Structure formats: structure tokens, C-alpha cells
């Protein structure tokens, strides 16, 4: 296979990755999960610091507790001017669900939610975690699995009860959640995630 063919295959995995927000209630085979975690761990890191901490949440009871605590924290948040729109949407979604006696499912009942945490004082914490998450999403796509970046926990991680829970499941002192990714089999007729790329209307390019 030529170098261009190899790059073409990689580009196809990149371009066909889409966010999945409906998952089947089916566990991931261990070998697939191992490959996804390995892809995350082999992401580059600023200065080769390798400070990303992967909290791989598989236990349904713990995921359910995370969902409850995250929503309870969101419900307490007051809207402020200039608030990040997705954060506000999460707050409003959690409040609406609570009014209806429900708990908003921010990770879409995926069988796996991988939170990436890093040193709160480390300059490249978000960049490193983003590299790891993208690597994991691309590997999931190559395995015909669906994935979706999940920021919700990050928004409210300072809530005392949620923070205590995050420590209980392994987040170390001085670490913060920088992002997460939900992964599983897409709940579609053919079992495959949506693949049609969204049109690129931003992300401008200048050839200089
Ligand atoms: C930094 C970042 C944060 C995101 N946070 C969330 C999130 O919390 N929940 C969610 O459902 N999607 C989240 N997304 C997914 C985006 O909404 C999605 O990537 C975007 O709409 C483009 O759609 P596509 O992934 O299907 O190409 C996030 C994506 C990124 C890159």
C-alpha cells in the first residue's frame, strides 16, 4: 500500500467520525476497549509530560451515580451573562428534567464513559486531553463504534458531592476533569454510527 493510500484510509476514518448520541445496551468487547485506551495513551503530550489520567467508567451503578450527582450539581447553577452556551444548555436541560421528575442523560447511556483528568496547574492539560480524546474517538470509529465528547462533568466538577465522587473513583488530589468521551455500539438499524460528515463552513484556511 502506498503512503498516499495509507493517509487516505486515515483521512477517511477522520472524516467519517460523527457524534453518536444513542447507544445500544451492549458491553464493549475487551479487545476493542483495550485498543481505544491504548490509542488515548499514545496521544502526544506537551513536553512528553503524559499527565492524562484516564478514568474508564464501565460500572452501571457508578455511571448512574455520576449521572445523578452531575445533574444535581447542574440544577444548582444560576445563569450568568456570557455563560458558555453548551454549559447553559446542560443547566437548562437538567432543570427541565428535574421538574419532570427525571434525570438528564448527559452521556446517552453509553456502556463506557472515559473521563480524562489532568494536573490542574499543568499548562497543556486541555490540549493533552483533547489529543487523547480524539485518538479514542477515531479508534472507536475505525472499530465501527459510536462516540461522543462529553463535557458535562467538567462544567460542574467543583460541586462538593460530585468532586468527592470523582475522588472516590480515582481522580487524584490536584487533578481536574478536562473532558470525557462516551463510547459504545450505535443504536441504529444497521448498528453503525452515522458517517456523513457535516459540511465545513468554518475552520478557515490560508495558504501563505
Ligand atoms: C470540545 C468539545 C466538547 C463537546 N461537548 C459535548 C457535550 O458535552 N455533549 C455532547 O453531546 N456533544 C459534545 N460535543 C460534540 C459536538 O457537539 C460535535 O462534535 C459537533 O456538533 C460536530 O458534530 P460531529 O461530531 O457529529 O461532527 C463536544 C465536542 C467537542 C469538540
Shape summary = globular
Number of helices: 7
Which spans have pLDDT < 50 for at least 5 consecutive residues?
none
What value does the average pLDDT take?
Answer: 97
Along the chain, the helix and strand elements come as HHEHHEHEHHE
Largest sheet descriptor:
4 strands, antiparallel
Question: How many distinct beta strands?
Answer: 4
C-alpha termini separation: 32 Å
- Are any ligands bound, and if so which? flavin mononucleotide
Helix content: 40-55%
Major β-sheet strand ordering: 1-2-4-3
Strand fraction equals 5-15%
The CATH superfamily of the domain at 10-59 and 105-184 is: NADH Oxidase
Q: In the CATH hierarchy, what is the architecture of the domain at 10-59 and 105-184 at level 2?
A: 3-Layer(aba) Sandwich
Question: What value does the Rg take, in angstroms?
Answer: 18 Å
In the CATH scheme, the class of the domain at 10-59 and 105-184 would be Alpha Beta
**If you consult CATH, what is the topology of the domain at 10-59 and 105-184?**
NADH Oxidase
Structural class, please? Answer: alpha+beta
Amino acid at each position: 500500500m502506498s503512503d498516499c493510500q495509507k493517509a487516505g484510509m486515515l483521512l477517511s476514518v477522520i472524516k467519517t467520525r460523527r457524534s453518536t448520541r444513542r447507544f445500544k445496551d451492549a458491553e464493549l468487547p475487551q479487545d476493542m476497549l483495550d485498543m481505544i485506551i491504548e490509542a488515548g495513551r499514545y496521544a502526544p503530550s506537551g513536553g512528553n509530560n503524559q499527565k492524562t489520567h484516564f478514568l474508564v467508567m464501565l460500572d452501571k451503578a457508578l455511571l448512574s451515580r455520576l449521572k445523578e450527582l452531575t445533574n444535581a450539581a447542574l440544577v444548582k447553577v444560576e445563569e450568568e451573562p456570557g455563560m458558555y452556551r453548551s454549559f447553559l444548555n446542560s443547566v437548562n436541560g437538567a432543570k427541565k428534567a428535574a421538574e419532570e421528575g427525571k434525570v438528564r442523560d448527559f452521556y446517552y447511556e453509553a456502556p463506557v464513559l472515559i473521563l480524562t483528568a489532568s494536573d490542574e496547574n499543568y499548562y497543556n492539560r486541555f490540549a493533552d486531553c483533547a489529543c487523547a480524546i480524539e485518538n479514542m474517538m477515531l479508534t472507536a470509529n475505525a472499530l465501527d463504534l459510536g462516540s461522543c465528547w462529553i463535557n458535562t462533568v467538567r462544567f460542574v466538577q467543583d460541586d462538593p458531592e460530585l468532586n468527592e465522587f470523582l475522588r472516590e473513583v480515582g481522580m487524584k488530589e490536584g487533578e481536574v476533569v478536562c473532558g470525557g468521551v462516551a463510547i459504545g455500539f450505535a443504536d441504529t438499524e444497521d448498528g453503525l454510527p452515522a458517517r456523513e460528515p457535516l459540511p465545513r463552513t468554518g475552520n478557515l484556511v490560508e495558504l501563505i
